[in-house]
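Friendly challenge for the regulars: who can give me the structure tokens for this chain first? No prize, just bragging rights.
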Amino acid sequence: MANVTVYNMEGKEVGTMELNDAVFGAKVNEHLVHMAVVQYLANKRQGTQKAKTRSEVSGGGRKPWRQKGTGHARQGSTRSPQWTGGGMVFAPVPRDYSFKINKKEKRAAMRSVLTDKVQNNKLIVLEDLKLDAIKTKDFVKVLDNLKVGKALVVTGAQDMNVILSARNLPLVETSYVTVEETEGKREIKSNINVYDVMRYDTLVATKSAIANIEEVYA
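First reply, four minutes later:
Bragging rights claimed.
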């Protein structure tokens, strides 16, 4: 099992943490990572594009001129694609771009990108991340202490102070992974995804987030 250094919000080492090899030491499967990224981006597409075909544009009820004797090329309708204002050939129509991949494949893709972060020393573990108020300056100070620029910050709870403090930073994204017990049922709340983990240079996660990730993806 890999050991990583744990830092506090001041950027000082406060201990180490042992990572679960089932999640952070898995085999990297580039094909599954590619599938997960393509699915994520496809599911975000609105699919609302629309253009009119020749059957939908106005006009063209009769031939613009007679078939022969004018010197022009023969034309049957002003709705033809070659006319200005005519219909479009194979016009795009609203459609749903989303598709599904198996849960096991998606989990394996997540393990692959998490393992890649560990192997390339791009994982920083924070002891805790607590902000007293919604203040971007305080959040930036934490990142500066950790010497981090473009980063995905993952917490073990949906902390609105952290989320709102980071929303104006163009190179930072926040996510959370929580595991709660309600009436004997285990409820997982998470918005972490393979695309964001791969897209950002550094993954910054709290100890509680690491524990929840290991519980969810092990």
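The longest strand covers residues 172-182. The CA atoms of residues 176 and 192 lie 6 Å apart. Your move, everyone else.
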